[in-house]
Amino acid sequence: METGQVVTARRSRITPEREAELYGAVLDLLREVGYDALTMDAVATRTRSSKATLYRQWGGKAELVVNAIRQNKPGEIADIDTGSLRGDLHALLTREDDCAMEANSALMRGVAMALHRNPDLRQAFRDQLIEPETAEFRRVLQRAVDRGEIRPDCPALDFLVHMMVGGFATTVLLDEKPPTQAFLASYIDAVILPALGVPAP
User: Which position has the higher pLDDT, 12 or 16?
Assistant: First the structure.
């Protein structure tokens, strides 16, 4: 039996409902104590699990945390297809209300600090979140190029994710308030679309 088959067999013992419960508890602990203070013991206690089960399913804290964050996301970015880039980016905002954005902003700030100190977390984050989401954004942009909305040689094409993350992450630092749908919608129209050469609405 190949390694991938072993992992699948092991993971199949946990129901989707139980997995969602575990991920929810991990995210709660992250918000309460941060990544560095989060322990597998604490997760096991909170979820009435054994540490052996957690390690068997996820291998370690970094994998468990990144999987919890990934499962907390509201769907695939590339599945959004409204027929226009502006429509796609605005539709992306509607998947989370302002309360969810505030909670996720606080969560990501705590994880961002831990990324600098934990190479295993940084690698898992890159493999399971950054690279897949960057690939999804590329598909969204490619559709816009194919529709003729963006020039294929537009220099800003390589920086969409940077711009999106920047708008989301800097509101707390610069404005001392969490990101909101209204702020990010304005940011998309005033900054991102002009940078990509898409005419203002």
Answer: 16
